[in-house]
User: Fold this.
Amino acid sequence: MTPQGLYVHIPFCLKKCDYCDFCSFPGIDEETQRKYIKALQKEIEFDTGASAETVYIGGGTPTSLSKKNLLRLMEAVGKPSASTEYSVESNPGTIDFYKLKILKDAGVNRLSIGAQSFDDNELKSLGRIHNCEEIYESYEAAIRSGFSNINIDLMFALPGQTLNDWTGTLKKAVKLRPKHISTYNLQIEEGTPLSAKAVQQDNETEYQMYKGTIDFLKSEGYIHYEISNFCLPGFECKHNINYWENGDYKGFGLSASSHIKWARHKNTGDLKEYLSDPINSKKKEKRAKKDEIAETMFMGLRLIKGIDLNKFEKRFKKPVEELFGKEIQELSEKGLVEQSSHHLRLTGKGLFVANEVFERFV
Ligand code: SF4
Assistant:
């Protein structure tokens, strides 16, 4: 069976950002990167059904690879059909016209740029490798090399950031008219360098920034289609929509997860182990039907249109009311979710306390 999505993880970055707790290693030499891509190729080739409707290469920073290794990566993944949404994540400071041409020529048609902020002081305090000028250079290089479907990743609620600062970043991002904007509320994770020097913004500030984001981006013509994601009409990220709909996908590379027919497999996060045996590094996670149902609920509610109730019933052979009647009624009474004949979704009020709502379905 062909899955909807195919994910490839590149766990390398030039330097670790101060807030990062993702699976990524800084300063890895070119030879190790080459071995990693070889291992990836082995894993992909072993999986003969490794074709999909969407392909997403994420990280880490895929574009931190050298040009030679980037070419090898493109060969390992293969050129999908022109109708495939093919995305690659990148970061300013690791891209130039030539690298972007390699991606474009290999069929990549959607580029995500991790800008995070358009304020040099904020970028510095996050430990990012780039400044604001390099964001503009990257964006301009992306356009010149032929990309028109570009996402910009931004983060708000940064330590010391004011509502005014955040609005400034949003305005600069919108001025570029990217087709897609992702905005994440920075969570300061324990054990990261940032946690030693900064504290999480208070709830009220986070609320004001999130509300301001929605209002501003909507007024600029962006559609709010997922809690943290906005796009110009027709430019939703299909790959991620499949995640939120809890669809099938295959993941390749370090720490990558696959979700096929209710089964979830996760690759090892140990680089040495993966390099020595990429095919047998997958572990099946123990899951019950109720886990699949809970996941479908809280992932689906992330979408602004909500969960398609007909699809839900077809998939789990029961209407949602039979499984969560009490929870839905209580949340509706609090004004946090609303139900139409086809969808169950968060209300405007529910959006701001989404985690509280999700917990009711776990
Ligand atoms: S670029 Fe992304 S993955 Fe790499 S260290 Fe920074 S936050 Fe982590």
In short: Residues 5-242 form a domain with the TIM Barrel fold (CATH 3.20.20.70).
